[in-house]
């Protein structure tokens, strides 16, 4: 249910979504992936899921760098690689936003 909670927070205020999107895109670009430019939380998350799923399927070596930059710890991967990444990115911004 972590994904539902993150999506609800992103949809609650546009500012929260923009900060999250910027954080995710920063790590994506620094890892060699393209930024995601969707302007709505659900569309952004769907595009991110698609990008990460394809990278996992292709065993893209950029994933290693992405998880390092996002500081995804092994304990956060227990519910899945993609959700581990989304959760870690949320943790990185939520204290800045007092969420």
Could you walk me through the main structural features you see in this protein, from its secondary elements to its overall organization?
With 99 residues, the chain is mostly helical. Helix content is 68%, strand content 0%. The chain has five helices and no strands. The longest helix is centred in the first third of the chain and has 17 residues, at 14-30. The chain is globular.
Distance between the termini: 17 Å
User: How many runs of DSSP E, i.e. beta strands?
Assistant: 0
Oligomer: single chain
How much beta, percentage-wise?
under 5%
Mean pLDDT: 84
Write the H/E string, N to C.
HHHHH
SS-derived structural category: mainly alpha
Low-confidence stretches: none
Q: Helical percent range? A: 55-70%
Q: Characterize the largest beta sheet: strand count, sense, and whether it forms a barrel.
A: none
Anisotropy-based shape = globular
Alpha-carbon Rg, integer: 12 Å
Tally of alpha and pi helices: 5
